[in-house]
Amino acid sequence: MGTRNNGNISLLFFLLFSVLISKGSSKYFDPVTVHVENNIEGDGVKLHIHCRSRDDDLGERTLGQGEEWHWQFRVIPTRTYFWCDLRWYDKKDHRWYSGNFDVYHASGIVNKYVWLCALNCEWSYRRDGAYLYRIHEKKWQRRAIWH
């Protein structure tokens, strides 16, 4: 009897998975977009960004105030990880600010970024740190500060 029950459970999971795929209802299969934007107030502050993943180097960019850059990817659970090295010069304080920030990390079986920003992760870099738009709460949350 144990073998028959295992077969029924496997068939049930297969059918459930097939329905999810056919309906396109699972956001785990849709591409994710990460946006990074320079919102640092000041006298023409330029934000220097170098983003990469475990597999890809997305290159270096320089964003003027209000400029945005974005890219898309498909998530591989427990593997997908993007981070950015950022730096900017403050003409008022005459010093460089920098930081290394995770912008997407599908760690573990439960991907916290699905809950934080769903398929559209918006990052706003400001004078006091890195902010992520929390999609479900509809608000910006500071996630890191500059060094």
Describe this entry's structure for a reader:
With 147 residues, this protein is of the alpha+beta class. The chain has helices spanning 2-23, 112-117; strands at residues 32-38, 47-53, 57-63, 68-73, 81-90, 95-105, 120-126, 129-134, 139-144. The strands form 2 sheets. It has a 5-stranded mixed beta sheet with strand order 4-1-7-8-9. A 4-stranded antiparallel beta sheet has the order 3-2-5-6, with no helix packed on it. Mean pLDDT is 85; it is low at 12-25.
- The tally of helices reads 2
Strand content: over 45%
**Could you describe the largest sheet, including whether it forms a barrel?**
5 strands, mixed
Taking the alpha carbons of the first and last residues, their distance comes to: 63 Å
Q: How are the strands of the largest sheet arranged?
A: 4-1-7-8-9
Task: Identify the quaternary structure here.
Answer: single chain
Number of DSSP strands? Answer: 9
Can you tell me the overall shape? elongated
Structural class designation: alpha+beta
Q: What number is the mean pLDDT?
A: 85
Order of helices and strands: HEEEEEEHEEE
Topology (elements, then pairings):
Elements: H1 2-23, E1 32-38, E2 47-53, E3 57-63, E4 68-73, E5 81-90, E6 95-105, H2 112-117, E7 120-126, E8 129-134, E9 139-144
Parallel strand pairs: 1-7
Antiparallel strand pairs: 1-4, 2-3, 2-5, 5-6, 7-8, 8-9
